[in-house]
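A.,

Following up on our hallway conversation. Structure tokens first:
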């Protein structure tokens, strides 16, 4: 999403509201009802603009042609992947990009090793990646390494920032596939890939760890739970004191397929 345009719209909206109320309070050709109407119209216009930007970013991300050689690079790094697996990894990367667009500029963590591998290869194609980012986000989306669900979530810690980034990835990936992020019936693609493709050193998630029973055995420290995110409406922004962004979503996208189903 184009952050510079968003900031400009917010600044103009704030300036317009301030001017309307100053005129009303000073009696210079303004009135309180007019100031209230102006405030309402400007806020509605700003929200509509933000939603349009997000919807446009989603359209770009879904339809933008990724370079064909990226699949060859991914196969070289992960020779165990078949054609269906490679296609699913590409879908997973698009799902991550959509989550990043929906997060409104807030940090979104990468939860998959194999998707991170494809993202890294794309970034190495500097000119092509910059062109994609400019069209989809209006800025560069910089690479951050794949992250596992951290144990320490204390406020203010670096681990807490990673957790917030993963919560955003979880929330918007679930929304993309019409999954309830608080009570998931299955994993969204982005969180399912490492396990379903048997990626060495990958991150293993399950939708609900209570289904594994009280004794998770040797998986206790390596199996992460979707329900651990505790995702309500605040997950989209990662701010527990606010609602998720503006409530918009990209729709179901690849959606109904869910998990890591084949194409």
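Then the amino acids I'd put at each of the 263 positions:
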């Amino acid at each position: 999403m184009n952050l510079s345009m968003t900031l400009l719209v917010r600044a103009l909206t704030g300036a317009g509201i301030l001017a309307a109320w100053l005129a009303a309070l000073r009696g210079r050709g303004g009135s309180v009802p007019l100031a209230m109407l102006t405030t309402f119209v400007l806020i509605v216009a700003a929200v509509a603009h933000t939603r349009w930007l997000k919807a446009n970013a989603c359209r770009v991300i879904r339809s933008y042609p990724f370079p064909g050689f990226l699949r060859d690079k991914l196969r070289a790094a992960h020779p165990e992947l078949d054609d269906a697996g490679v296609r699913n990894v590409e879908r997973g990367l698009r799902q991550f990009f959509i989550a990043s667009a929906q997060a409104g500029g807030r940090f979104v963590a990468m939860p998959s090793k194999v998707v991170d591998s494809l993202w890294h290869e794309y970034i190495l194609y500097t000119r092509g990646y910059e062109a994609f980012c400019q069209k989809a986000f209006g800025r560069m989306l910089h690479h951050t390494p794949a992250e596992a669900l951290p144990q320490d979530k204390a406020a203010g810690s670096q681990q807490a920032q990673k957790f917030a980034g993963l919560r955003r990835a979880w929330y918007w990936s679930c929304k993309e596939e019409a999954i309830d992020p608080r009570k998931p019936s299955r994993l969204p693609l982005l969180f399912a890939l490492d396990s379903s493709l048997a990626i060495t050193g990958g991150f293993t998630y399950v939708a609900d760890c209570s289904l594994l029973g009280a004794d998770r055995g040797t998986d206790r420290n390596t199996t992460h739970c979707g329900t651990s995110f505790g995702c309500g409406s605040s997950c989209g922004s990662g701010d527990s004191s606010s609602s998720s962004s503006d409530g918009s979503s990209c729709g179901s996208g690849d959606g109904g397929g869910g998990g890591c189903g084949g194409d």
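The helical segments are 3-26, 32-63, 69-77, 83-102, 113-124, 126-136, 158-176, 189-196. Curious whether your intuition agrees with the design.

B.
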